[in-house]
QNR71 protein (Pelecanoides urinatrix), 147 residues
Amino acid sequence: TTGASSNTDSSTTVESMEDNPDGGCHIYRNGYYRTGISVVEGILEVNIIQMTSIQMTESQAENSLVDFVVTCQGSLPTDVCTVVSDPTCQVSKSVVCDPIVVTDECLLTIRRAFEEPGTYCINITLGDETSQALASALISVNGGEST
């Protein structure tokens, strides 16, 4: 763009110049454009408010199940991703993403399986078309029990 100016109706005049490599000519275009900006609230905050181990029978004990109760502020999410990492939150062990439907209040329960006992870093991300928010926690899974 070689020059731009504004007039009183908030439109912007744009003068542009393009090189034509074949003939060495210049093409000038003059005109107006308008744009609108929509400000969306987005998902502002995510909190893990409870972690509960699911008691299973001995025949089901190959995986420990944990329910995470999650709340959020702002717009309602449309998907949730859970990243399970080592205790330092550096090495990812698994990533699970699911679409969700939240209709009224942002309060949901996410169930995840852990293959073996240990301490894990959990990152839960709630997202929609325009935003994402993250909550993290350390969890210790002890063969069907979590703390």
Observations:
- Residues 1-8 have pLDDT under 50 and may be disordered.
- Residues 112 and 135 are 15 Å apart (CA to CA).
- The first strand starts at residue 3 and ends at 6.
